[in-house]
Amino acid sequence: MTIFNSMQIAFPRTLRSLMAVATSTFCLGLYVTAPVQAQSTASAHKQVEQLVDAGAANWKQVSKEIWGYAELGYHESKSSALLQTQMKAAGFKVEAGVADEPTAFIASYGEGKPVIAILGEFDALPGLSQQTTPDREPVVANAPGHGCGHNLLGSGAALAAVSVKEYMQANHIAGTLRYYGTPAEEGGSGKVYMVRDGLFKDVDVVLHWHPGDRNGVINGGLLAVDSAKFTFHGIAAHAAMAPDRGRSALDAVMLMGTGIEFMREHIPSNSRVHYIISKGGVAPNIVPDLAQMDLMARNPSNTVLTGIWDRILKIAQGAALMTGTTLEVTGIGSDANIVGNDALAPVAQKNLEEVGGYTMDASQKEFALRLQKTLGIDTVPSLDQTDTIEPLRPVDPNAPSASTDVGDVSWVVPTIGFTTATFVPGVAAHTWQATASAGMSIGQDGMIIASKALALTAADLFTKPELVTAAKADFARKMTGKTYHSPIPVDQKPLINYRGN
Amino acid sequence: MTIFNSMQIAFPRTLRSLMAVATSTFCLGLYVTAPVQAQSTASAHKQVEQLVDAGAANWKQVSKEIWGYAELGYHESKSSALLQTQMKAAGFKVEAGVADEPTAFIASYGEGKPVIAILGEFDALPGLSQQTTPDREPVVANAPGHGCGHNLLGSGAALAAVSVKEYMQANHIAGTLRYYGTPAEEGGSGKVYMVRDGLFKDVDVVLHWHPGDRNGVINGGLLAVDSAKFTFHGIAAHAAMAPDRGRSALDAVMLMGTGIEFMREHIPSNSRVHYIISKGGVAPNIVPDLAQMDLMARNPSNTVLTGIWDRILKIAQGAALMTGTTLEVTGIGSDANIVGNDALAPVAQKNLEEVGGYTMDASQKEFALRLQKTLGIDTVPSLDQTDTIEPLRPVDPNAPSASTDVGDVSWVVPTIGFTTATFVPGVAAHTWQATASAGMSIGQDGMIIASKALALTAADLFTKPELVTAAKADFARKMTGKTYHSPIPVDQKPLINYRGN
Amino acid sequence: MTIFNSMQIAFPRTLRSLMAVATSTFCLGLYVTAPVQAQSTASAHKQVEQLVDAGAANWKQVSKEIWGYAELGYHESKSSALLQTQMKAAGFKVEAGVADEPTAFIASYGEGKPVIAILGEFDALPGLSQQTTPDREPVVANAPGHGCGHNLLGSGAALAAVSVKEYMQANHIAGTLRYYGTPAEEGGSGKVYMVRDGLFKDVDVVLHWHPGDRNGVINGGLLAVDSAKFTFHGIAAHAAMAPDRGRSALDAVMLMGTGIEFMREHIPSNSRVHYIISKGGVAPNIVPDLAQMDLMARNPSNTVLTGIWDRILKIAQGAALMTGTTLEVTGIGSDANIVGNDALAPVAQKNLEEVGGYTMDASQKEFALRLQKTLGIDTVPSLDQTDTIEPLRPVDPNAPSASTDVGDVSWVVPTIGFTTATFVPGVAAHTWQATASAGMSIGQDGMIIASKALALTAADLFTKPELVTAAKADFARKMTGKTYHSPIPVDQKPLINYRGN
Amino acid sequence: MTIFNSMQIAFPRTLRSLMAVATSTFCLGLYVTAPVQAQSTASAHKQVEQLVDAGAANWKQVSKEIWGYAELGYHESKSSALLQTQMKAAGFKVEAGVADEPTAFIASYGEGKPVIAILGEFDALPGLSQQTTPDREPVVANAPGHGCGHNLLGSGAALAAVSVKEYMQANHIAGTLRYYGTPAEEGGSGKVYMVRDGLFKDVDVVLHWHPGDRNGVINGGLLAVDSAKFTFHGIAAHAAMAPDRGRSALDAVMLMGTGIEFMREHIPSNSRVHYIISKGGVAPNIVPDLAQMDLMARNPSNTVLTGIWDRILKIAQGAALMTGTTLEVTGIGSDANIVGNDALAPVAQKNLEEVGGYTMDASQKEFALRLQKTLGIDTVPSLDQTDTIEPLRPVDPNAPSASTDVGDVSWVVPTIGFTTATFVPGVAAHTWQATASAGMSIGQDGMIIASKALALTAADLFTKPELVTAAKADFARKMTGKTYHSPIPVDQKPLINYRGN
Known about the structure:
The structure is a homotetramer of 501-residue chains.
Chain A: H1 13-16, H2 25-32, H3 35-69, H4 77-89, E1 93-96, E2 105-111, E3 115-120, H5 150-171, E4 175-181, H6 190-196, E5 205-212, E6 216-218, E7 224-233, H7 249-264, E8 272-279, E9 290-299, H8 302-323, E10 326-335, H9 344-355, H10 362-372, H11 406-410, E11 415-421, H12 432-438, H13 441-463, H14 465-479
Helix pairs in contact in A: 3-4, 3-5, 3-13, 5-13, 7-8, 9-13, 13-14
């Protein structure tokens, strides 16, 4: 997830926008009218939480090893292998290399309906290498680091899966449990290809989580995002001797950028379009015959984004027309916005509140206070934030937000998620402070909260078929009149070297 | 002619570039090997010059009346009527309103071959009203004025035609003499429609002249020019409430302009592209649904200009594509560059040298010296400049220059021209100082030089058929591999209100 | 008020954002704990409503006459004179031509404290002339029209004032009642100069209203706006002969515009910046030595807007620096955002609910349904909308909105306002449909709702001193740490000809 | 010399513009009135040519070794070392590492006046590695290659110096002869630092040459060039979460570029400004806090260029102002235009004509014809071009051209130069075809022509003091009212890693 919880200080609505509201009396009624079931739920939940606690030490260690590997998207070979080994050891069958992604895999247990899936990620971010110290000290300068906490994400989700499997086995509960090892979330749209290949076709409900600096339910929100590289091809010429013979690809990139700037006023304010010039010419005395813009566009709504994307393509075509150059669009990536589920949200919220937060010990607090001093933010949140659970709130479509390829999954399967306080309060994702947090006990303690909430919710779904039914009904309602379509071309394979090209 | 002689101080090559060089040994030989004819030429020339002197007073007065009318392009009704009346009185047949231009006319005398045509113009320029005083004093503030001296142009050319007619009549010389009353040279491309309507189809040689601040032959040069209004249509919207619903036509104009700027590096350096934003929105709180650019492009070569014009159209289309607006191109104007004639040039040069310049009298000099003080130029040329004749020189394709619709005529008929010192030396066309000069004796004295040079050359053409033959041969050679094509659409009528729209 | 209620269909939060929420238990408590006073209030309210009904016919007629005058900002001489005459006839003292504005006036009645003011506007909008027909039929093509309903605004507010005066007189109630005739709301910032001249210094509470297409309280919101003309001065030159000698003022305007476009991404999303090019050069063959941008910038917060305005000035300076031109900033206008008042809002809401809406009769409904067909909007609201009162809601800082110079008044005096359904539901302000509505019975019936709500609230303020005290306390709280400062230069007189220059 | 002879096919005036014209009757008279001296000159010249022939084989081999090294500017350690070794072996004293340039050196012989200097270069160009084959076959893909023939330049100049030394020694001729080993001509401005350090202070005349595809004298011309890296520093921010907190350095670069484009119309047409975006942001989801433009500006006149450079700096400052970023200008490079010498030019011309060209043998012709097929040019020049000598012509200030740091030397010492046909006719410098030519016999044969012309001219200067006097007089005349000033900051050391930064 691209910078999931950053900026929450400055924009207090940010995180709140990711929380869901319970409005359906049907769902609330569910609990009120089923006291007997609720009682057995309490006992089941206790068992599940104990199973998570039993596995905690091992999976904290796994998270730490993946933190050390810090592998970039689609190149997470060691991280993926470690997770696969662990899942096999825990009794899961593993299918690796799915969806043309070398590091993707599906670990599964059980059979029949329902099919409940838990998502795991494990890719790192470039340049965020950092030791587990409260001051800026890279392990290796400019090397990748787990600044989005995906080492915790993949491990915590696996711990949930393993615990639920133990619980199912112990209680002879039917159904299929899957753990999806999903690579390259950070810009590689790894899950989109898995969706495209039909790997979620028979799944009934998807559960996910993401590291953050507070505890809450993720029920919809985030931004749909499309991205691509726009490469222009012109004609080189000596810029002093014969500039009139050249057709500048850089001119095209600059005019495309200018066209984008002029478009900003005329798209909805809650859209985002941002770009870099990834190739801007080789030498000033040569008219550039090749130049490239690397661009992303976002909007809370996939549908609105599609309209904006079409206009961006026209701007690119216009720039080519203006400059006598030709346009090539490659490396198309896309994440949909997350579709919330108002049947699952109150269940998830109840489970998270049941688990509760955690309280830092003295040494964690000392670390946290020192780290907060490096943040340079106006209002530093209290450390107590790790103890509390955010209430459900409706998504604010104008709140600043980021993007994730979980979005695409949520367009094809009912989906609900959590965020937990794995980062020192005030720390934004995609920072070295997040890398530091994700490699030490604060991150690991927060991870266990997520594992438990996921495991409890999965257990509920396996034991209460009406929950799955309600989730599907809400999903069907939300999808009425909508279709899921990814702009990633059907013949485009996963861009294994997307970071290097 | 658009700013014919301006800037000659700063760019000493400017004027020289308009002068022709005699390189053809054929032409030079013509005079050497025909002494008898040369002798009779001397006598003929004497007669022609006397006829011009006899008509001078009347036509100076005509020039002064047209100076007073100061009518804008296509609206020169009084000026045209006066010239027609005068030509009829002198024995010419007049056909008026040709080529769908109310103020265009052709006055003709005689019949059969050869057909020799002299061009006359009579339109004024907006905002250049000025009394015949050496200080800035408009007759009417912001009113039009003859800042390009076309009052002299039309009158001096008519005097030449009338004198040649007298000479032909007196000497029973066969052939057809025509005077073309051509409106709207200043941006209206009046002659282009006359060319399009075939009015020059049977003409053998065209003669023309233009006021300036020195005496010389115009043998080719000047810039081909294309112009148009680019109007974009968008969608209005309240700019504060719903800017995302608007599609800004002003954005399109600005992106088109920016596209033009990026093109500059990649067209030949001696091109010119310039524009204004003639409509830029109505109110800042409304997304403009209409905006307009008024643009001109120039190059010494019609062919090169055609390529540039195509690219400008693509830039405009690109701007529309980028902004979701639609494009309308209207008011297309076009003047070709002047094609020189190396057979006629030495004849014209010899005749102009035969006529010689003129010397200002004391009061003219006093006026001239006072006027020069208002010019604000570094090097003020000597007043003796009116006495001398510039030598023939090849055209410099990089010299700053302007445009005229005489160019289009020169692409279909062999053409040669003169410039004479009608403006105080140092005065550029399109200034109030030029208006002042063109309304008083300095302009009128310079005009007589032109009348004589034109008349002598016409007389030569009527009496020496080999000259016409040589002119046609040179024309054929220059046109090899070229075709004349005006970008003005065939269904576009003359833009009678081009200044007001 | 610039397009107050437009777009409410597409953006259902728009209008709601203008409504206030009652959160103060103090205020709510006020009514609960004062039953006796409430009883007498009922009788007083009845009397006030009857007084409004008694004056209704006359003031509907006044509104119709001003609708017919349709005078532009600062030139509302007939409209202002009619209102002054009426107020004098009703027993008010009138001071005219205040604040250097020929059409501004203050009508006052009574003396001593409290001082309660009601605001009236009466300027029309260019180009919106329209008959009272449901199809587009201008009275005079392109002439001004009351597309913002200020003919109703000024008349309805006056009717309220006259009724309250009758009530005060009848009941010997002390205090000062004022009606402010405020010109040029539409872009002229008329009230800002009145604030600057101290005309609101002794006022305790200000009441206002604005035509719309539904009924509700205006408690804060709208956008602060700054505007100015940015004129660049360059050096003219012939664009073909010597473009290198020119310094293009149009280049500066275009670069300033481009700079603005690049800034958009880096200001808060709920800001607005929009501009036209009001002067874009005179002729394409002259490098423009003068060009002008007319620009407005808006943000929900005056403070944020000040920061944006500073950056816009730097962009303009940068454009001058880039092009070798000089910059002149003139015609500065500014409206602040509206500061809400949470003590007054529940009182206003209660009164509006007491008045209630109105139900269209058959002919009104027929007219309304036909007019709605011309709107071209997706979801056409029900005509029942005129019957209902919107609940109080907090302002949404991201909702599309417009601006008004009432804002500046609200920064110096506690202020509360109403909007009522004077336009056919679905009709946006600043449209010909609004002009049509404002000239016929629908507009007039809606106006009476506003008159009553204003009069009831004024009566409350005169009879319940604790209300004034609470209003001032809330105002003081909101202003803590803030200062009001208008960017309009202190030596700038009202721009009487702002529309023509 | 940056692309010295390219494009000569398309622009026939290009090369001609580099040739000088003999207009001074003084110089012509010199030869006419000094027959005795001319006679002894003939004998001296014969001796000098024989000395060159004697050294030819060795120096062809040196040129081939340097061709193999193909070292980039300031890193020509092997090439410089080889040349130093050779010069020492030939009896020169060598001072190495001058002007803070590790690979610069001065080899000198003799003492006293006059001091005559010959310039040598030896740096290669990136990406132009090519075998000596007529088809594209790099030695090492993307590696540097001698595409400007500086391997020949340095060796041929050294051969001239060594031959003149032998001649001086043999004839007991007094004076000081120097060979300047000048690194990094290609963009490193190596000679500018040598000029700055006063290394040419006591030199009387400088001689130079440059490989090309025809034979002629270089008497002035080429373009003055200034270059720099414009780095903008902004504020990074997450582009989706908080773009309003960012200040984009890329925006600044794009606005600077756009400002440059708008300036083009308003600088003299024969100027050149070209740039690339060398740093355009790191990731599209981060507002770039660093971006960089690498820019060059050129004009035939150093003085005009200074004015343009000042405007470019203002554009950069304007872009910073517009975007809230800061500007850093580094890596400033500069070459002046070449000042011709009309006293030396006819001497050089006479000597070159005396040497004459060379005729390709059959195998050279076969190679040349095959290579010409790869050129893709419209008109392929005849191979006879190597046999002929171009006449002296005045420099055309509008002809396309390139730049060299020889220019700066020519602003402080009288300078004259040659170009000879070392590249297959039609081959432009800075191409793989030039690398191929420079590595085989065609390049080597052309080099010997240059060595002889240089040696003859140096011999003349040592034996005819009046020539040095005349050269100095012409230099003094040309410099009247001018001063040499390089924009390279006095505290900027040579940019040893200019290619890598």
